[in-house]
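Human: My hope is that you can spare some time for a protein that puzzles me. I am handing you a single protein, as its sequence and its fold in token form. Could you go through the record with me and say what the backbone is doing? Take your time, and here it is.
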Amino acid sequence: MNLIITELDNKILCAWYKDNKLIQASVDNKNNSSFVGSVFLGKVKNIVPNINAVFVDIGIGETCFLQLDTRIGKSPAYIRNGEPVKINREDEIVVQLVREGIKTKQPQVTTNITLAGRYLIKTCKNNVSISSKIKNVNKRKALQSLFGEDTGYIVRTNADSADTELILEEKKYFDNIYNTIYEKATHATAYSCLYHAPTGYELAVRDSYAHEIKKIITDNQTIYDNLKKYMTETGSEILDRLHFYEDSYPLKSLYDIQNKLDEAIKTKVWLDSGSYLIIEPTEACTVIDVNSGKSIAGKDKKENTAFKINLEAAKEVAAQLRLRNISGIIIVDFIDMEDEEHKNQLVTSMREFVAKDPVKTTVVDITKLGLMEITRKKTGKSLYEQLI
């Protein structure tokens, strides 16, 4: 799999290609970088006791919502006294932006600061947890032994194939950053940014599985230099896979990027059999309809044909969820089948297909109306929202 990073219409595009097929994409505005993940010294502007929440100004032009339903970690979030105490207006607190404002919802912050890397996620809790995708018991014990009791980390799936030295290097890197954040907070002025989160393309490199990425290719010198610096500082094991594209033939043309993006946001998706999907996002959920289209069979073969089309459609639905970054509730209306065994096989197959998605996706079941219910964790805006 190749990760292509390039500038497109004043946006920075990250596109993952496998066998010359676009399987995932993300887009960031070049001159409007997201602050999500950054840490600020905010000032409390309003307290709403009946919903156990406060509103905090971090200097980005909008007040942010802070839910006080979790305990603050061992690191002091309240700078005035250095200890978690009852919050008051005008208090200065360390918060991390976890969600941008969406439509009528305000940006959201948290006092539970986390720093995510390729192998680890630094947390403010005093416990270490290992990714459930790491199944080997001995490996889990070995990873657990790298951490002391008085520390908070989540070990990511990438750590399964990583050298111990790389994991420890990242741990040291985050321990230093974490300490620096709170050292800065003790003498910083309100609205100061205490930690800048990585850019969208740096996150794309960080979160890609090392064993999947063959090349990281960019034709932008600034992006190349920034990535090289970021990967060097974080001790990335895939630094040698970073390449600067200098050919006269445009990189975006070589990978037919614009056409593939246009296809990725169309309502209709054709399948090889001649059947097709209709993908319709709504306010409450995303509805996907499977249609037989040009795929025709005699009455005696109707059930088997429907089953084959549905299996083909299920594979493509899983691919489209990842490509379009569709999240929340997804309802898939497959072609009606009478055979219960076929329905069970369809659910099993769909679960196998979505298991390849790096974002947690759950296939619930098929309802009595023959609709398959799926949920997918939200990890930002859909591809359509990023492009418009």
Q: What stands out?
A: The longest strand covers residues 39-48. The first helix runs from residue 137 to 144.
